[in-house]
Amino acid sequence: MFSRKDIESIDRTYFAVKSAGCYGITLQSKNTKHCWYIISEDYGNFQTCTIYHTHHEGTPMHQHGHGKNLKVCMGKIKDHDVYQIIKDSKKRRLARDRRRMARIEQEAQAEF
User: Fold this and answer.
1) Cα–chain center distance at 53
2) Is the per-residue pLDDT at 112 higher than 70?
3) How does pLDDT run across 37-46, given as a tens digit for each residue?
4) Is the pLDDT of residue 111 over 80?
């Protein structure tokens, strides 16, 4: 169960809080716009959180992992954002390079 202190500890400069309750919190990363739903699960002797994720708001979520508390979950989300940003920048760079090579080949063929 998330306490008021847990909810107040959310990094609101990094996340947009879509909803926050004692059993679940929905966040959206301001960097990637990915949505995350964190569920608090209490099993008596221990507590854990399950993280669900989607790339686009309004689409079905899939399970992304677990964390022992909300702070750990937010760290995992931030790590995922770094991974996603690097992956996306590589994709953009490769696409830009392909377009440049196609333009060079097209210009070379036009010369002949």
Assistant:
1) 7
2) no
3) 999 998 888 8
4) no
Please check whether residue 29 is in contact with residue 81, taking contact to mean a CB–CB distance below 8 angstroms.
Answer: yes
DSSP string covering 22-89: SSEEEEEETTT--EEEEEEEE-SS-EEEEEEEESSTTSPPEEEEEESSHHHHHHHHHHHHHHHHHHHH
Cβ(41)–Cβ(66) under 8 Å?
no
pTM across the whole model:
0.77
Could you give the CA distance from residue 102 to residue 79 in angstroms, rounded to a whole number? 35
- Torsion on CA atoms 17, 22, 23, 24, rounded to nearest 10: 0
CB 70 within 8 A of CB 63: no
Residue 57's pLDDT band, with cuts at 50, 70 and 90, is confident
Q: How close are the terminal C-alpha atoms of the chain, in Å?
A: 72
